[in-house]
Amino acid sequence: MVDWIVAPDGAGRELADVLPSALAALGTAGFTDTIGMPGCRRAVVLLVDGLGWTLLHEYADHAPFLTSLATGAPGKAGFPTTTVTSLTSLGTGRCAGRHGVVGYTFAEPSGGLLHPLSWSTHGTAEDTAGRRSSLLDVWPPERVQPHPTAFQQAEAAGVDVRIAVPRDFKDTGLTRAAMRGAEFRGIHAFGDLAAELLDAVHAPGPTLCYGYHGHLDLLGHLHGPGSLPWRMQLEQVDRFVSALAERLPGDSVLTVVADHGMVTMDPQETVDVDTEPELRDGVRLIGGEVRARQVYVEPGAVDDVHAAWRGTIGERGLVLTGEQAIDEGWFGPVIDEDVRPRIGDVLAVMREGGVTRSALEPNESALRGHHGSLTAAEQFVPLLVTTG
Q1: Which residues, at least 6 apart from 283, have a Cβ–Cβ distance to it below 8 Å?
Q2: 187/330 same-domain check
Q3: Total structural domains in the chain?
Q4: Per-residue DSSP letters for 4-45?
Q5: Phi/psi at 62 (nearest 5 deg)?
Q6: Superkingdom of this entry's organism (predicted)?
Q7: What is the CATH number for 61?
């Protein structure tokens, strides 16, 4: 494998290990701490969307408190380094090959693509208007991801489990797939997110609370990671976490993680599938996202599609078959039988630039910041632990 690929390694410091480690720190039977969390009565896990380890250190002056906690080794997001996969890995304690949410978009049984953020069809070449149809009833989240979540297991063990996330996340497909079993606490902004997390650390019994902040990722996509809006948001996140840490009681632990890092995409390094007809020959569906494409091919076309994509992308990325990616452990050590058809027949992960779709995905193609691939900037994430 090429030297710029940072693959998942199952070493116990991936997102799938965070909640099991927190539950072990709470003394919950059946869980093992592989991260190194101190024993506690209340555990809070705060995920800052898009806060990669590389970015945190590159902009350390804008996040002095977070940087002061970054004394150990980073964690890994898993593959692909995208929010829907990472949140499901976190919430289930399983890698993508088990939980089945294998990308930003991926093949669904009726022959289209599932867009997990909206739990709807993603749109096809025949639907250039971008119309989407809900798949909540046709392919419900509990069927896509049938394993019990870490929250369900914790609740069954007598732990008070909560999630403090934006109100719009209530009852969404992704929440049902990744976070079911926790008491939903809808929030609007930093203020009520802080209030919910502090309420959890003052609860009477063993408590696990997950919180989510998404604005750093949003500004990274729109303006680019490291841009002035992004840096200003990072400063707010740093002050927010510092204020939380000051208010932690002595028997509580706060862990700050991220779902992926982010890179700025050079428009000169992009390949546009919608203007490169050879990249569509023999292709049935193109899923994934700009930095990590999953290509589903017609019967017998794997070799030809693999060669066409490899020839076009060249040194800008790595093109390999889905079977090769599975053999390399990218989706975890175990692949459930019903998950295998969701993984692309050919995968393209990018070192530089991306693979855009100017006609079918104009909004995504126009973003400045991206993630999904396996560079260090995208794969390494903080695992920052502090106590009261």
Answers
A1: 295, 296, 297, 298, 301, 305
A2: no
A3: 2
A4: T------SS-BGGGHHHHHHHHTT-TT---SS-PPP-SEEEE
A5: -90, -5
A6: Bacteria
A7: 3.40.720.10
Q: Which residues pair with 114 in a beta bridge?
A: 106, 121
**3-class SS at 239?**
helix
pLDDT tens, per residue, the chain with 388 residues: 799 999 999 999 999 999 999 999 999 999 999 999 999 999 999 999 999 999 999 999 999 999 999 999 999 999 999 999 999 999 999 999 999 999 999 999 999 999 999 999 976 544 444 567 999 999 999 999 999 999 999 999 999 999 999 999 999 999 999 999 999 999 999 999 999 999 999 999 899 999 999 999 999 999 999 999 999 999 999 999 999 999 999 999 999 999 999 999 988 889 999 999 999 999 999 999 999 999 999 999 999 999 999 999 999 999 999 999 999 999 999 999 999 999 999 999 999 999 999 999 999 999 999 999 999 999 999 999 999 8
Q: Which whole-number Å values give the CA distances from 54 to 59, 76, 201, 383, in the listed order?
A: 9, 12, 30, 13
CATH of the domain at 272: 3.30.1360.180
Q: How far apart are CA 60 and CA 66, in angstroms?
A: 8
Same domain assignment for residues 291 and 338: yes
Angle in degrees, CA 254, 165, 188, rounded to 5: 110
Which range of residues forms the domain containing residue 321?
265-370
Chain length of the chain:
388
Instruction: Give the pair of three-digit tokens for residue 243.
Output: 């204020």
